[in-house]
Amino acid sequence: IAYKTANNALPSQLSADTTINQNTGVFTFTPSSTSSDAGSFRARLSASDGARTTTRLVDFNLQFAPIIDYLILAGGGAGGNWVGGGGGGGGVLTGTSWEGVFGTQYDITVGAGGARGGSDSSCGGAVGGSGGDSSFASFTAVGGGGGGSYNGINATSGGSGGGARHNNYGGTDSTAGSGTAGQGYAGRGRSTGGNGGGGGGGAGSIAGTDGTGGDGIQSSITGVATYYGGGGAGYAANSGSVSGSGGLGGGGDAAGGGVGNPVATAGTDGLGGGGGGGGGCPGSPAGLHPSGARDGGSGVVILR
Predict the structure, then answer these.
(1) Rounded to whole angstroms, how far apart are CA atoms 183 and 206?
(2) Is the CB of residue 291 less than 8 Å from the CB of residue 79?
(3) What is the distance between the alpha carbons of residues 26 and 142, in angstroms, rounded to a whole number?
(4) How many other CB atoms sit within 10 Å of the CB of residue 274?
C-alpha cells in the first residue's frame, strides 16, 4: 500500500497504519475520530503473486455526521369566541440520534401561535386561528387547531384539535377538531362540569369532558423536565359552570360565565399551548361574558 502524500506519510484522515490480511487480501483502514481531519486522500493498493502485480488507485473521503436529538413544537391554536372551545396544542415531534450531514445547512422555522377568534367586545361567534407549523430539516410539526364557537361554528383540526362548543345553552353544537397522528390528540365538547365550550387536545392526551385542555408531552431535552403542547380550556358559559383549566404544557385557561369569574388566558409562548376559549360579550345581561378568547402560544425548535 502507498499513499499520494509527501514521503508516503500516513494521511491525517487515518488514525493507524493500514493492515493487510495476507490470506484474504483485505485492507483495513482505521479512520481518525477528530473532525478537523475530515477530507480526502488517495491510496495505491497492490497485490502480487510473485510473477505479476495488480494495482488499483482508490479515493477515500472522511466525513463526520452530527448526531442530533430534537424537539419540534408547532404553535398552539387560539380559543374560539362566544361560548368558545379551547385551542389545540401545537403538534410535537421528538427524536434521538438523528444523523445529519456535516457542513450542511438545515432550515428551521418556528410556528407562531394562532390569533384568537373575535374580541372582548364581540358577541358574535368566531373560530380561533390555527397555530403555525414548525420545521427542521425534513421534519414538520403541525400547528394546533382553533377552538370552535357558538351556533355551529366548528373547531379546526391540527397538531392537536380545537375544542367544540357543546352544551344545553341553546343553539347548534359545533364539532371538535382532530389531531395529527404521532403529534397530538383531538379536542372535545363539554359534557360535564356545566355548560360551555370544550377543551382543545394536547400533544400528550385528549381533552377532558369538563372543558379542560389535554396535557402536552414531557421532555427533558433541555436538561429540565418540561411539558410542551398543552390544550387550551373551553369557556364556562353560565354562572355556576366550572371554568376550565388549560392542559400541562402552556394551555391557556378559559373565561368563566358570571360576574367576577376569571378572564381567559393565552397559551404560553415557547410551549405551544392552545389559547383559552372566551365569551366576549360584556353587554350581555349582568355582564355574564366579560372576556373574549385568547391567542395560542408560539412553538419552539430545540436541537441537542
Answers:
(1) 12
(2) no
(3) 50
(4) 58
DSSP states of 132-199 as a string? PPEEETTEEEPPPPPP-BTTTB----SSSPPPPB-SSSSS----PPP--TTT--------SSSSBBPP
Cα separations (Å) of 32 from 35, 63, 101, 141?
8, 10, 17, 37
Cα separation, 47 vs 18, in Å, equals 15
Rg over CA atoms, the chain: 29
* Model pTM score: 0.83
Contact 199, 191 (CB under 8 A): no
Is 87 within 8 Å of 275 (Cβ atoms)? yes
What DSSP state is assigned to residue 285?
Answer: G
Residue 287 clears pLDDT 60, i.e. is over it: no
- Integer CA distances (angstroms), 233 to 64, 244, 274, in order: 46, 5, 8
Residues 277 and 163: their CA atoms lie apart, in Å, by 9
The secondary structure of 53-77 as a DSSP string is EEEEEEEEEE----EEEEEEEPPPP
Residues present in the chain in total: 304
| Cell representation of residue 27 | 485492507
CB-based contact 285:118 (threshold 8 Å): no
Inter-residue contact 195 to 236 (CB < 8 Å):
yes
Partnered with residue 92 across adjacent β-strands are 73
Give the tens place of pLDDT for each residue, 193-233: 767 899 999 999 999 988 999 999 999 999 999 999 999 99
Residue with cell string 387547531 = 145
